[in-house]
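In response to reviewer comment 3 from the previous cycle, which asked for concrete evidence that the modeling workflow produces usable outputs, we include below a single protein chain processed end to end. The sequence was submitted unchanged, and the resulting structure tokens are shown without manual editing.
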Amino acid sequence: MRDLADTTKWAAIASIAWPLVLGGCDGASETATETAGAESATMAVSGAGSSFAAPIFDHWLAQYGAEHPSLALSYDSVGSGAGIERFLGGSVDIGATDAPLGPDASAEVDGDFAQLPVTGGMIAIAYNLPGVDGPINLPRDVYPDIFLGEVYRWDDPRIAAANPGIDLPAKVIQVVARRDASGTTFAFTNHLAAVSDAWADGPGVGKKIDWPGGAMEANGNEGVAQRIKITQNAIGYVEAGFAERLGLSLAWLQNRAGGLVQPNVETGRRGLADGADTPPDDLTRTIPDPQGARSYPIVTYTWALVRGDYGSPEKTAAVHDLLRWILNRRSGGCRSPVLRAAAGQPGAGGARRAGHALALAPDAGGASHDSFRHHRRQRRRHQCRAARPRAGPGLRGHADRCGPLPELQHLRHSVLSERRGGAGRRPRPPQGG
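The workflow returned the following structure tokens.
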């Protein structure tokens, strides 16, 4: 029987989602994708959740569905919060979330399950400033204050100091944010809390927050992107692919090393690598403030929530085969390095949560399957060290070219083993007043 793990580790292949071709978007409405030929299918496999990762899930399901016409595959882009709720309620087979489940939510899952990091990408700060040519620079002590409502005019001296030569309008900044419970909001606020004490002590981190100073709100990444598109002087946070599709302007952000970095494939990969040259151990590890001189500062993984048992060997095999295929194929996207799983996963505030090693069912046609094997081990949380800024050219990558992360080696540990028979940065911005 084929496993995706030994008793303590499994490996996952993560893809950068946003370079892929995006499906149609409609303002603030949720979207659903169903594979062609569903009327002739004999078994349904459903997923729901992250709008951040919806384009790549749609791409995967279209490819896999073409190869498996007996399956009716569907994915609803309803946001991470709703995806978690549907998974916990048993109305979908696979949940997708940009915010990993904590101990309380994990305890609500009926039976064994795993959360697998399957893709990753960037959260851009997009804006609509008519008449302003070229990207604007936003230092890391400025953009949190924009979303706090402390910096509320585009011609604020702190923004102007970082953008010499740009004629910024004397207009009020209109913040656009998510209305629904969102993993994108979780990742964005997790970053803001890491770089701003005022944010950490104020709004804090969550999938849904009360935005200080008032904000226009929309559902889904597509809804936020559309709202920015039609609102002059607006600014908001959105998965980079949706912003790219609509032709929105994207700010260059100051990263942890002090450089101003453009959101593109290369800087996104470096951010997801977090300045490391070995894979992380923690499956649910978030990256609130990546290290590395050329790392884009706001990145997140998306986790697929999958059960160990779906009530029948056939259904379990169908879901697990799909997940195995996602984890072990490029699927037309961009591969990041294989991530090693850790049995113990440190939670927020030093709390410990259970890790899960995933034993997938055999390929379709197999006679039996194993449920997930569950392991607990405590692991100390390590403090990240700040990376020193170093000189280097700006990176201006293009969204349609991608490849393996140069920083990490492709590692595989006991993957698909057989049980039977054995074996772009800019210079530092000037300091504003």
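The longest strand covers residues 113-128. We consider this sufficient to address the reviewer's concern, and the full set will be provided in the supplementary archive.
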